[in-house]
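Quick question: what would this complex look like in 3D?
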Amino acid sequence: MHSASTVLAVIAFSCLLAGLIRAEEGPPAFWKTRLSDIEDVLGSVKLGEVRKIGESYGRRPIYLVSYGEKEPYTRTANFSSAIYSGHPEAFCRRERQARPVLLIIGPVHGGELEGIASCLNLIKVLETGSDFRGRPWPGISGSADKLRIVIVPLANPDGRARLPFDSFVGKDNETMHKYSQGTRKDGSLYGWPGMQEIHPMAGDVGILGACFTDGGVNIYNDCFFRPMAPETQTLFGLAVDEAPDMIAGLHSHEMPAEFLQTYLVPERLRKWTAEIQRRYAELMQKRGLPYTPPRETPSDAFELSEALYHATGAVSMIFEGPQGIIGMSHEPASCDTILDSHLVMFEFLIELGASPGGYMDREGAVRGDWRSGGH
Ligand SMILES: [Zn+2]
């Protein structure tokens, strides 16, 4: 017979052991966010086409994976000149029945691991019909072949390489600020928006935040007319070449998932991004998944999502997924919820692109009517 104290000691030891085992387990196997995971998953691609499109400041490769043939177009003008001419299709004349192009840009903020995990799971779905949990996504599989889908799983490999863990789930806000946004030499946090005031980030730097490249550039707020970062140049080279109809840039925040409206674009297009934001929230509600109710987040800053519109005419939006940190107002999301938030978003965008209107708004005024023949 055990004495009460022995029983307590055994229970305490078991709890400690279970805790240690859990700590060693780390994130679940489907949660793939390491640079080596990207290499592994891209190495297994059979249906898609894998290409190295550039190198980071720290000489790390930037990859893309594409699905669906790249269809030809003719171009007689850059986008600014084309839209000023009244004939935006001069930037990209494709056959009307050509596949719409969806460009997914994985994290430019290298610590926003959630976008890497979701891109790699999307690739798995496009290859096999199921994600790395074995869960099928018939909405993705059923519509993907009507599009060309171009995925950059990670746009800022330097930032990712500096992050010393594989998931933010269960971590606190301070840890996120420390590693994503960075610290001064004395260990104090730059925080946001303090991190934006020095760019490129240099000088009084203890931890260089994962938001930055090794060159200290925050790609999202690079100078788009004279880019400082090779990563930014790579993304614009890709986007202008692909002439996508829709661009989704993947980010993460403390709150549940949402699309953000894009502001410094034509009013018609801003309204359409509000509609996409609303439709995604509605879909998440139907699926019983947490979402941030549609809201306004206007900003005077001309940022990557806007710049990509002005370079290509695409409907260009930011998707903010949940990060899983212990937030001030929300329960931390699990890896499952984070992945579902992203995959529902991919499914929504793929089904939208495959629908008769494609990525056009109701009046057909956005992007789609540029296809050859016009109206
Ligand atoms: Zn971000």
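Answer marked as accepted. The pocket of zinc ion is lined by residues 109, 112, 251 (CB under 6 Å).
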